[in-house]
Amino acid sequence: MTVVALDIGGTWTRVGDLARFPTDPDYDRELAMIVDAAGRLEATAAGVSFGGRVTDDGTVRVSLNLRGHEGRPLGRDLAGALGCPVRVAHDATCGLLGEAFAPGGSLAGVERCGYLTLSTGVGAAVRLGSTVLTTEAGHQIVAGNELPCACGQTGCLETLVGGRALAERLGRPLDTVDDRTFWISYAQRLAPGLVNFALTAGLSAIALGGAVALRGDDLWRPLWSEVARLSRYNRIEIRRASLGDAAPLAGAAVLAGGTAALEVLH
Fold first, then answer.
1. What is the C-alpha separation between 59 and 74, in angstroms, rounded?
2. Which family does the similarity line name (predicted)?
3. Distance (Å, rounded) from C-alpha 178 to C-alpha 63?
4. For residue 27, which of 11, 172, 201, 216 sits 20 to 30 Å off, Cα-Cα?
5. Helix, strand, coil % (nearest 5) of the chain?
6. DSSP bridge partners of 205
7. What is the pLDDT along the chain (266 residues), one digit of tens a residue?
8. How far apart are CA 166 and CA 78, in angstroms?
9. Greatest CA separation for the chain
C-alpha cells in the first residue's frame, strides 16, 4: 500500500517528503502543483491535512487564509487526479491524529486529549476516546480583546496569538522576535485559552504544534508557569508536539491508512 500524505497550509504546502512550496491562493493552480508532485507515486490512498474546515467528503467549507478554496471539492478533485481514495481533514485534526496515533507521538495512549496548532492561524482538535473532533478553540472570545478577526468576530484568541495577525501588527514575522518580554506576554495571552479549551472538553493533556510552538524555552517556560497558575481546579499537561511540524503529515498518513476504530467529526 502506497500512501501519500499532503499538508496544505495557509503559507506552505508539503507533499510528503517529496516537495515543499508556497501555497497558491488560486485553487486550480494549487491543485496542479500538488498533482505534479504527487501524481508519479501511483498512490493507493492519500490523506490531506488542510488549513480550514471541510465536510465529510472533503469539500472546503471555510478557510480564512485560502478563501479561493472555499466551496471547492478538494477531496473529489484530488481523488480524480491521483486515481485513489482521498480523505481530507482540518490540519489541527491531522496534527492530533499524528500525535495520538503515529509512532513517537506525544499523546499516545491519552484518551481525552487536545492538539492546538499555533501557525498562520490557530486550529484545534480533541480526542474523546474513539472520537476525534475538529473545534474552533482559536475563535473563543477573550474578554477585553477588541481586535477584529478575519472570521468576522471581534475578540478571538487567534488575534492575540495567531502568527499572521501578530506579524501584521508587529510588521515582521514572529520567528524574528527574540525579545523575552514579548514571549512572556504571549504566554500570558495564550494560557487562559488553553485552560478554557481543556476544561470545556475535559482534557488531561494538550499538545502544541505549528511554527510558533516550535520556539524554545523563551515561550515554553513562561507558558508552563502560567498554565500551572491558572489550572488549579483541574491540572492540565501542556506538551510539545514531539513530531514537530511533521505532525499534520503523520496524521494525514494515519487518515489515509484507515481509522476504522475512530470516528472523525469535521
1. 5
2. Belongs to the ROK (NagC/XylR) family.
3. 30
4. 172
5. 40, 25, 35
6. 113, 237
7. 789 999 999 889 999 999 999 999 999 999 999 999 998 788 999 999 999 999 999 999 999 999 999 999 999 999 999 999 999 999 999 999 999 999 999 999 999 999 999 988 999 999 999 999 999 999 999 999 999 999 999 999 999 999 999 999 899 888 788 899 999 999 999 999 999 999 999 999 999 999 888 877 889 999 999 999 999 888 899 999 999 999 999 999 999 987 657 899 99
8. 33
9. 53
Residues 207 and 107: beta-carbon distance below 8 Å: yes
Q: What is the pTM of this model?
A: 0.95
Taken in order of first residue, the domains within the chain and their CATH numbers are 3-93+247-255 (3.30.420.40), 108-243 (3.30.420.40)
Give me the phi and psi of 116, to 5 degrees please: -125, 125
Burial of 33 (C-beta count, 10 Å sphere; 0-12/13-18/19+): middle
- Cβ atoms of 42 and 2 within 8 Å: the answer is yes
d(CA 251, CA 247): 6
* Residue 178: alpha-carbon gap to chain centroid: 24
Pairing of strands 86-90, 131-135: unpaired
Nearest Cα neighbor of 114 from 132, 130, 101, 102 is 132
- C-beta of residue 245 within 8 angstroms of C-beta of residue 4: no
